[in-house]
What we know:
By secondary structure, the protein is of the alpha/beta class. It contains ten helices and twelve strands. The termini are far apart. The relative contact order is 0.14.
Amino acid sequence: MFRIDEMTRGRFGNKILHYNTLMQLAESNSCETSCVPWEGSELFDDLCTYKDPKNSEAKVSWDEILESIKLDVSSTDYQVDPYSLHNNFWKVTKTDPRKFFKINEKHKRNLPKEKTNIGIHLRGTDILGADGNNGREIHEPKYYIDSINLCEKEFDNTKYYVCTDDLNFVSFIETVKHLESNNIEFELGSPNHYMDFSTLSECDVLIASSSTFVVCAGFIGKKNKKIIHSRIWLDKNINHTSWHTTPDPEHVRKWQLSFDSFWVDLYNSGGNNFYEMWNIV
């Protein structure tokens, strides 16, 4: 059995990724799962529940997953490390995550079929605060404006959905101003992040931020989304730009580089069958 007895302390996107790692490992090893209650139950149907351990317990770490260490699932219950997130995504995701993540009727969005629905996600508060990694993950207004212009050139009958938790963030303000000044149809997201997630998950195109929130919306809901990412952001990961102004301890830096690798591999391969990058702006 694979287990989550301690859900990652990260925000909603990280929790989805942690749960995905659990379910993918269990699917690949044909064994049971157990998971403590988490906020995903508000949005998703049929999540796995908590079960008492059946065997001796051991922890499987994020780096052991990447190294494909041999696991004896017949005699051991494995606790999935809370840091097994997007750093493990390309390694473990062999089954369509939509099998494990079904948005419930309460929050499901049915976007207009006659439109090309384009979701825009902007980060704000969590990258501007004390632990904002020195602003490393900020996407400037130009990225969003250039992405909108690309979409207007490529697609007909567009409608945009602008989702963020920070209405004072300059990139949000400039993006909305650009949409308004060009008479482009759009609606603002909801203060309810479950509804925003559902909206993004059903879009045809995503103009993505660096957030795992929108990454997860990319592989849940509507299939074959066209996903746009920032060239500046990808370059920061390819070049392994330091997360902080002062050097981090070696074990922390190793962990950071494992998360960089998600974006590096996305850049190099374009993604996989479940998360595919369409363009870099």
